[in-house]
Amino acid sequence: MLNRTTLSEKSFDWINAIFLLLLMLITVYPLVYVAFASVSDAGSLMSHKGVLWRPLGFSFDAYTNVFRNPMILKGYGNTFFVVLAGLFLNIILTAFGAYALSRKSLAYRKSLLLFIVFTMFFSGGLIPLYLTVKGVGLVDSLWALIIPQAVNTFNLILMKTAFEAIPDALEESAKIDGANDFVILFRIVLPLSMPVIAVMLLYYGVSHWNSWFNAMIFLQDRSLYPLQLVLREVLLQGEASSNLGASDGASAMLTVTLKYATIMVATVPILLVYPFLQKYFVKGALIGAIKG
Predict the structure, then answer these.
(1) Are 234 and 65 in contact (CB under 8 A)?
(2) Taking all residues of the chain, what is their mean pLDDT, rounded to a whole number?
(3) Number of domains the chain contains
(4) Cβ contacts of residue 262 below 8 Å, gap of 6+?
(5) Helix, strand or coil, per DSSP, at residue 226
(6) With the CA atoms of 179, 162, 83 and 67 taken in that order, what torsion angle do they form, in degrees rounded to the nearest 10?
(7) Is the dihedral of CA 128, 134, 139, 143 positive or negative?
(8) 52 is a domain residue
(9) DSSP conformational letter for 254
(10) Are the CB atoms for 22 and 4 separated by under 8 Å?
(11) Does some domain include residue 29?
(12) Exposure winner among 37, 62, 114, 147, fewest CB in 10 A?
């Protein structure tokens, strides 16, 4: 018997499709605007009003000026160090914690999990955090952006739930063969949890890449600034120049196209990574969200 779609179901599908299309346009347009503005002529862009659907003129002068700024390259180097070192520490420590909490034989397992979940809702605050970081000598060091953020509670619970979905029979057979917990974790649990590992890489990586507030708090040496803090400086300088009524060509470039080019330079690399992790993202999130 053929399924017949009623008029109300068709109407719902069309309304849903139109709504999602509008939502997509609202989400994508700011990035499209920044991309077009970054390659537009500064004078034409300043005089333009309304929606921007194409570049006004075409020029890479803004990008040339961006990469002439030595702080951009330093910011890239500092950010890459924070992302790579941070991801290594994040994945290792989160995996260790998740593996321990996923073992049913762990003593006081529920109490430990309760204390860990408690940190999601309550913290000591910014001043105690700063005093702690200063007390261990991490102020004005890139490690101040890595070590305090080593384990995220939500990610820990997500990975723990994924580890619990792995059949106990695999662990039992490995122990019969003489495997210890390190062997079980690195040779059985982690290889079977690659989708959730990909999700962790994306969550932690985006967090490190976009982080600027901790850098503003803990770093005083400008040579240690990550890319997002350099971007903040450029935007603030551009806003200040605009408020002062700068009218020469160099200032116009700084206040208009330069800030858009800097945003693109800081955003595009992390956007290019997402397609390679997308196929694991939904599966990993579901594995970590549903207890098997």
Answers:
(1) no
(2) 82
(3) 1
(4) 66, 72, 230, 231, 234, 235
(5) coil
(6) 140
(7) negative
(8) no
(9) I
(10) no
(11) no
(12) 114
DSSP 8-state secondary structure symbol assigned to residue 245:
T
Q: In which residue are the tokens 């006004």 written? A: 56
Kindly report, residue by residue over 18-47, the tens digit of the pLDDT. Answer: 999 999 888 888 888 888 888 887 777 777
pLDDT at 1: 43
The region that residue 4 occupies, defined by phi over 0 for left and psi between -120 and 50 for alpha, beta otherwise, is beta
Question: Which whole-number Å values give the CA distances from 243 to 47, 250, 255, in the listed order?
Answer: 16, 15, 10
**Ordered DSSP codes for 135-183:** HTT-TTSGGGGTGGGS--HHHHHHHHHHHHTS-HHHHHHHHHTT--HHH
pLDDT by residue (tens digit) across 211-247?
889 999 999 888 899 988 888 887 777 655 555 454 4
Dihedrals phi, psi of 179, to nearest 5 degrees: -75, 140
Residue pLDDT, tens place only, 237-277: 765 555 545 445 555 555 677 788 888 888 888 888 777 76
Q: For residue 269, what are the domain limits?
A: 69-289
Tokens of 98: 């998740």
Q: Which residue has the tokens 């940190």?
A: 119
Per-residue model confidence as pLDDT tens digits over 176-203:
888 888 988 998 898 888 888 888 888 8
Within a domain: 46: no
How far, CA to CA in Å, does 85 sit from each of 65, 91, 149, 268?
30, 10, 12, 21
Whole-prediction pTM? 0.79
Q: Residue 27, SS3?
A: helix
Which amino acid, 275? Answer: P
- Is 167 part of a structural domain of the chain? yes
> Which amino acid is present at 211?
S
Q: What is the pLDDT of residues 51-98, one digit of tens each?
A: 788 888 777 878 887 888 888 889 889 999 999 999 999 999 999 999
Of 219, 250, 224, 226, the C-alpha closest to 237 is 250
